[in-house]
Amino acid sequence: MTHPENAAEFLKDSQKAKWHDETLWFVRDKRDKVSKGIPEWEQLRELASGIKDNVLANLADYLEEFERNATKNGIIVHWAADSEEHNRLVLEILQQQNCTAVVKSKSILTEECHLNPYLEKHGVEVVDTDLGERIVQFLNQPPSHIVLPAIHLKKGEISELFHEKLNTEKGNEDPAYLTQAARVHLREKFFAAKVAITGVNFGIAETGEFIVCTNEGNADMGVHLAQVHIACMGIEKILPRRKDLGVFLRLLARSATGQPITNYNSHFRSPSPGKEIHIILVDNGRTAQLAREKFRNSLKCIRCGACMNTCPIYRRSGGFSYNSTVPGPIGSILSPGLDLKKHSSLPFASTLCGSCTDVCPVKINIHEQLYEWRQEVTKTQGEFAKGLAMKLASGIFKSPLAYKISGSLMRNALKSLPNSLIYHPLNSWGKNRNLPDAPKESFQQWYRKNRS
Amino acid sequence: MKANSPSVALFIPCYVDQFYPQVGIATLELLEKLGCKVTYPSGQTCCGQPLANAGYARDTVGTATHFIETFNDYDYVVCPSGSCTLHVKEHFPAIAGLEKEQEALGHKIYELIEFITDVLKIEKLEGKFPHRVGFHSSCHGQRGLHLSSGSELNQPPYNKARKLLENLAGLEWVELSRTDECCGFGGTFAVTEEALSIQMGKDRLADHLEHKTEILTGGDMSCIMHLQGIATRSKQELKFLHLAEILNQSLS
Amino acid sequence: MSSREKILSAIRSLTLESKALPDIPNFSNSGDLVERFTQSISGNKGEVLSKGELEEWFSSSGFSKVISRSSQFSELATLSLPEDPHALETLEVAILDGQFGVAENGAIWLEDRQLGLRALPFATEHLVIVLDRNLLEDTMHQGYEKIAAAHSGFGLFLAGPSKTADIEQSLVIGAQGAKSLRVVLI
Lengths: 452, 252, 186
Ligand code: SF4
Fold this sequence. Notes:
Structural class of chain B: alpha/beta
CATH superfamily of chain C: NagB/RpiA/CoA transferase-like
CATH architecture of chain C: 3-Layer(aba) Sandwich
CATH architecture of the largest domain in chain B: 3-Layer(aba) Sandwich
Number of helices of chain C: 6
Strand content of chain B: 5-15%
Largest interface: A-C, 87 and 70 residues
Number of strands of chain C: 11
Number of domains of chain C: 1
Strand order of the largest sheet of chain B: 2-1-3-4
Radius of gyration of chain C: 20 Å
Order of helices and strands of chain C: HHEHEEEEHHEEHEEEE
Helix content of chain B: 40-55%
Strand content of chain C: 15-25%
CATH topology of chain C: Rossmann fold
Bound molecules: iron/sulfur cluster
Largest sheet of chain B: 4 strands, parallel
Number of domains of chain B: 2
CATH topology of the largest domain in chain B: Rossmann fold
CATH class of the largest domain in chain B: Alpha Beta
Oligomer: heterotrimer
Number of strands of chain B: 8
Distance between the termini of chain B: 16 Å
Largest sheet of chain C: 5 strands, parallel
Shape of chain C: globular
Distance between the termini of chain C: 58 Å
Helix content of chain C: 25-40%
Radius of gyration of chain B: 18 Å
């Protein structure tokens, strides 16, 4: 289904859609307020953007520096060209450990690689330990938001789900009660797991360490109890210096949820004695995106989710309407790079209002890239390519005479056409909106009569 | 009219020309009242924005060339639409052979309100408009042309339209819950994402109604056309005027 | 060609415009550090208290499983640090020394040296961190300056208790990790 179809479906449950919009708006509003408490906020965004630009311009060097330092620290570094290789590497490590049950904290990369179904197919039980992710995992759904994975669900639905899966009281919808039940369930998993998988927020070239941020502490619960820690990291997550984290950690949580920092910000430099840390550096389309000059800086994304929270489309259509691992504005500029055909409607799922660009902590020109992707989509005759009609229109616009003719034609048509036709359900302007009243003359005609 | 007044060419967007001639007239009369020598270059056509936003920027070379040539001989080009102004400034394809003219056009084209405040340097207008006015901030006007500060950015608040309006005697400015959320027009978006477009429009209107807007105004007739279309369909008691109409009426 | 070579050579084959790495100015704020730190911690749903207040809480709670790595409160300990982190499953309270705190967000820096076991501050039911009130930094920039050359296998900026808002955005304290954070400023 295309984005417009999915969006229309989402809007049918108008109460839930309204709740979704208002809840995410509230998160954005918190972001606005907290960012305004930092006088240097815009400077920080500029810095973050500049640092990331430098990273992308020197990515190969930084990756090698990171590898060198991480290896020196006793971290085992792997490289994966694509999702299959990434998944295979993870499985191999698990098999070496004879591990058939892993705990995994939030990692958009492993979603992108479809790691869970792959491991399950090979007999490994994967438990997502972020509460929101565990909820959607129980439902066999992907996350609908990169920071708030279960934002599409109401507590009634979660209560019912937990009643079925965790044997909670029927009808008890108290979030504290439900969270406590999940806590008991997940802690059991943490204490039993031999291997823990995490994502990576930042990798530091200078020190070979990597940083994982959570509020629940679930990443740390997993890795510090397990024998082996596997960290999956997109190659674009590199930062040059440890002190760059000062800039990024000031921006990340404030942009994401309006909190000044996530409660746990863990810096992994070398394994505890007797344990192992593996890091997998994954490409999976990133070098291809780096090669696309107009879309290159989409790789600066730090996955804060602010562009989703602010997007008037996302808020009213939900994450699933995008049908892509990363939804929302940033997803709409990343996903076409992976599969232009499949994601051809996404660059059009925007009014180009530009709010995403202005909240983005690394200043990605998201709405401009949406515009650019539109130009690409129409070249490939995607489903939105209305080649002929547009060519025609262009012909008319080019000629003043034809324009005038068509203009008055249009006005006359509006006057003489029966309303049933103008407001025909197929005419999507008129379905829920009136057309303006047709004036008796155009401005041009008035001007000619009155001023020349 | 002053002898040394700059020559101003009016650029009237196609849908304004066709559907809202009164907005073109108000723009013209207002600029004349403010002492400008105003011409409407005949032969002007659409700037090509609908096409470019639909993904066919490459097919707008003809319209852009024509546009640059039409407006080449004037000191200023003024347009009662932030969106079309932004398109000319930022999204015209590069036209070979007209590089200089294109560059000059980018610097001399202004949206109406910014022309009044930034070029004519008018700080306040003496006039009267005793109504409760709700302002719809067009996204291209605000985030593109920076006609007002955005709620997303950490910057001192300002709003060029508000500055002019607030001086009018009797005008009450309506404070909205969401000061600058998109109305959902978005050009082709209005028809390709019909359901979302309508919902966004309804939500904006609800904000205005909740805060007792009597007249909804803005600098982009396309947003207004969309909002008005929804409001009239659901028989809401809101009036709609372009900023040019309010300013022109209040000065008479 | 290995994937490593493939990725690196794909990147190197691109002509990428060079972009300078910006310097980071030493941003700082005004205001009393202790006051701002205290506010930040309570915003993060932790609590700042005095030594006396902590002792009061302790005696009224009657904990029986307590590990203290802080010399300030060594008498409160009932257990010593185990070898295996799995033994922490039923731990009620962990008391740790923090290295320094950051006023703008309440983040407290901890390293292997303070932790003993990396799982300690997460697995425990309640966490207490003892912090010298003279060791507060203004922002994260000063914080990172302080640990620029430090070398620990693991380090962490901890700013509050484990929390989640994944159910309808209602904030719940005590998700998977510690259910509370108390910071004793001395
Ligand atoms: S594009 Fe920017 S705003 Fe969106 S998730 Fe990435 S960093 Fe955040």
